[in-house]
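Run log // design_07
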């Protein structure tokens, strides 16, 4: 292909408006988590992003209520599920990826750096026979990798900082950033988990904010500051102008200082030690023991220096 033709094709593709997926949010009030069904309006093919497996830490009870609502919606709208996607191994809720995979046979996927999270937490849990190779998922996405949902193009952006393995899914005109950015009045994600880094988060945020200003940003949590109604959608332009952390920090050093000072005051999520052993295993609960019951492994004094609530 000659340079003129290549230039024309690049210019043409740049002028084509991105596909606008149909995005439906399901809010889990218990964990303040947003779960998404993202559908291609042209084909009815869809993906589920960051599904929640219900867990009550007081009683030890588990439930598939959230995940079953997602499946019921897919059936009701006559959609065809193609992907079950997680943005990272969550520290505040169990992933329902494994359950949904068993129910549907649809492939589950996450970013390739989940292997680094597995290695780190394998040591914390003293779990020598755990397979820290990512084989629990069907697909490990690399930075910049592309795939499709129906006819919609999707791209993966490696977005570390909150965790070692966080990724952003850019699907048409929508970016699913989970714990990298929150709604503008809530700022950004904490970086004090094992493997976290405020410097890396700053770089990840700049990558996201370099997307076109009209790109829709969908967050993974909303903690409803001031008691307002939950909100999940903004735009890149709104985040640039009004994010309570980003708009006040012109340099990486300023952001790191703000982020690290705040993180020192935050207690660990109440489910972090429960959730990571499940989520590093693609949302699969421990196997039943001889008595038919499942048991979580809970290390004491594993997160030294964390603030107490």
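design_07 sequence
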């Amino acid at each position: 292909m000659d340079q003129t033709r290549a230039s024309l094709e690049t210019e043409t593709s740049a002028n084509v408006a991105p596909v606008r997926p149909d995005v439906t949010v399901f809010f889990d009030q218990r964990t303040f988590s947003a779960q998404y069904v993202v559908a291609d309006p042209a084909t009815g093919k869809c993906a589920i992003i960051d599904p929640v497996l219900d867990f009550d830490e007081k009683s030890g009870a588990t439930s598939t209520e959230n995940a079953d609502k997602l499946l019921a919606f897919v059936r009701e709208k006559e959609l065809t599920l193609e992907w079950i996607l997680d943005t990272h191994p969550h520290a505040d809720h169990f992933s329902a990826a494994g359950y949904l995979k068993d129910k549907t046979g649809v492939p589950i996927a996450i970013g390739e750096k989940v292997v680094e999270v597995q290695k780190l937490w394998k040591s914390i849990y003293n779990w020598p026979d755990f397979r820290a190779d990512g084989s629990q998922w069907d697909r490990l996405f690399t930075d910049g990798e592309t795939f499709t949902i129906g006819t919609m193009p999707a791209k993966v952006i490696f977005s570390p900082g909150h965790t070692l393995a966080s990724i952003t899914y850019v699907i048409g005109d929508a970016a699913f950033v989970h714990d990298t950015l929150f709604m503008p009045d809530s700022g950004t994600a904490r970086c004090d988990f094992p493997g976290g880094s405020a410097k890396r988060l700053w770089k990840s945020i700049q990558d996201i904010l370099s997307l076109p200003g009209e790109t829709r940003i969908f967050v993974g949590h909303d903690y409803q500051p001031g008691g307002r109604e939950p909100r999940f959608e903004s735009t890149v332009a709104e985040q640039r102008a009004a994010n309570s952390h980003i708009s006040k920090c012109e340099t990486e050093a300023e952001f790191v200082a703000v982020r690290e000072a705040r993180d020192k005051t935050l207690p660990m999520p109440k489910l972090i030690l429960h959730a990571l052993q499940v989520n590093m295993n693609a949302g699969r609960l421990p196997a039943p023991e001889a008595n038919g019951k499942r048991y979580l492994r809970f290390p004491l004094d594993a997160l030294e220096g964390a603030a107490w609530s």
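Residues 1-13 have pLDDT under 50 and may be disordered.
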